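Chapter summary example.
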Amino acid sequence: QVQLVESGGGLVQAGGSLRLSCAASGSISSINIMGWYRQAPGKQRELVAYIFRSGSTNYANSVKGRFTISRDNAKNTVSLQMSSLKPEDTAVYYCMCASYSSVNYWGKGTLVTVSS
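The structure predicted for these 116 residues follows.
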């Protein structure tokens, strides 16, 4: 089992920046992928970005060039630096991780609100 706890959400004006962090605990050695999803009101949950243990990354087209995902394997954390935020980035952001055996774990989410 893996437990994930997010932090760093809040209210920010359009064009501003915010940093989300997620700390993992439990069966840490089983984690391969860590990442972030988001769910806006009335919409389905969507991928934002993910990072492999090796450091390889992948981003949704909507956030490329604005968001940066990073990971500290020693501290079992993953972060999402968000810049040039837009009102459409408003959502609950969920930390997730996937084990080498393809079991997924989710955090409870942190709300990001971008005002225009």
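To summarize the output: Residues 13 and 108 are 24 Å apart (CA to CA).
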